[in-house]
Amino acid sequence: MSAPAAETPVAYDSKIEGNVIFTRVDTAINWMRKNSLWPMPMGLACCAIELMATGASRFDISRFGMEVMRFSPRQADVMIVAGTVTYKMALAVKRIWDQMPEPKWCIAMGACASSGGMYRSYAVLQGIDQLIPVDVYISGCPPRPEALLEGLMKLQDKVSREASTVAQKKELIDELS
Amino acid sequence: MTTAVDTVSALKDKFAAEILSENEFRGEQTILVSLPALPAILAYCKEELDFDYLVDISSVDNMGEEPRFEMVYELYSLHTHVHLRIKARVSEDHLEVPSVVNLWPTADWHEREVYDMMGIRFKNHPDLRRILMWEGYPYYPLRKDFPLAGKPSDMPDVAFTKPAPLAGGPFVSSDPKDRVTGEPRAKG
Fold first, then answer.
1. pLDDT tens track of chain B, all 188 residues?
2. Which of A4, A92, A110, B188 registers the highest number of CB atoms within 10 A of its CB?
3. Which residues of chain A make contact with B164, given a CB cutoff of 8 A?
4. Closest CB from A88, A91, A121 relative to B150
């Protein structure tokens, strides 16, 4: 198809009908982001087993475009902290979180990652939110794969409501206007 | 056939003055020996009595007693299938025990754990570092005077700790007369 002439206004055109969608940049970016959330599996305890089950065929996390578990933090979007965070491990978790590029999200999976769980002890960090910001908390000990999927869908809802362009490209927008 | 009782009597023949007491409980033989004689007795067990398997090393904090600490060695023979437990008291004033890594290499990590959790040092240990907590953590968490909730500590860029909220706990089960009263409750 030849390119339309420069003066042609964007209007109803039977030749390109169905191939053009009008939307906002935010909505388009959020739609892409929320359907390809690549997890960083921070499996620290038994929650990691449920995380693996979520990735396997019965629950099939790839239905949401999230099957690409990235073991390099530089390629990941969402860190799933699955398990007990000991103080010895805490700063390693923080370091991996710092290596993840923006935009990034965090899910505290299970009682231990959310609050220390049953480990009221000298050795355990009482919730990963004391070190890194958490977007979604999932209850359970450990949570079922359905609960993790529900948490990921909650995160998708949150991503889809974000003002991505306005918030993250503020300088560019100011420059253009 | 060699039994645990035979090994105890063999040890008593050889180290009569060093064996402070012996105890039998449900067929398990335990002897308490003096700390200076411990390396010789353990070496004799390994070389002569065929205890080729060191099952575990642990330690006990009898706070308020003197000597305060106690080392526990669990020995087993894979040839004669005999189990023997050897204990030795360690004074708080001189917290040093000879290492047995030269006899059983598996003692390496066991002794590191005892050092990490109880603060008992091991003489001639090849690599005496902490194993569970980090190098520089100022406390020994399994001692009786260390609170379960922990104490604050901070090593910048290495690790930090804060006391855990216990909310009246620790919660312990009492003698279960029925299911309701046996539920875990705050102690005291």
1. 788 888 888 888 888 888 888 899 998 999 999 999 999 999 999 998 889 999 999 999 999 888 999 999 999 999 999 999 999 999 988 899 999 999 999 999 999 999 999 999 999 999 999 999 888 888 999 999 998 888 888 888 778 888 888 877 777 777 777 877 778 777 65
2. A110
3. 116, 119-122, 124, 126
4. A121
Domains, chain B, ordered by start: 13-162 (3.30.460.80)
Interface of B to A at Cβ within 8 Å reads 132-134, 139, 141, 146-151, 157-167, 169-170
Check CB contact under 8 Å for B164 and A90. no
Per DSSP, the residues of B98-154 read E--TTT-TTHHHHHHHHHHHH--EEET-TT---SSS-TT----TTSTTS-TT---EE
Predicted ipTM beyond 0.90 = no
Cα nearest neighbour of B168 on chain A? A120
Question: Model's pTM, two decimal places?
Answer: 0.78
Q: Domain-by-domain residue ranges, chain A?
A: 38-176
The answer to whether A165 and A29 are in contact (CB under 8 A) is: yes
Mapped onto helix, strand or coil, the DSSP state of residue B75 is strand
Q: Identify from A85, A120, A128 which residue to disrupt to test chain B contact, counting B C-beta atoms within 10 A and taking the largest count.
A: A120
Any idea which fold A38-176 has?
Answer: Rossmann fold (3.40.50)
